[in-house]
Input
Amino acid sequence: MINAIDDFAEVITHPELTPAAKLVSHLDDQNSLMTFGVQQATAWKAQRVGTEDLLPRMPRLSANAQELIFRAVQLGIRYYAVRDEHGAIMLMLTFNSITQVIEADRVSDEPATEYLKRMFPDLPLPDVNSDRAI
Output
């Protein structure tokens, strides 16, 4: 509790330390952070694509599982990683009220887009046929 009060006192005396204040310098002419956000996302994607671990906070997942999650997020599919009663990591993927559950260690070698399209036939795909698109 004292730490929270201490942090709050710091922000009151130094408002330039708030997250909002730090973002002000990135506003464009329309007072939007869209350009900055796109730049950050593009830089993050460039760092991740082609690396061994697409999702550095999920090092226990196989490259196939990471690729599947990465592509699912790009296509608007929500995912949750949970453990089953035996401790295995399960991926819960949800699109349009349909949830599919797969064991992370058993993700197919099939290209991620094709795998997701089989799981979610109503999934709209971009015109580009590349797993690295978007």
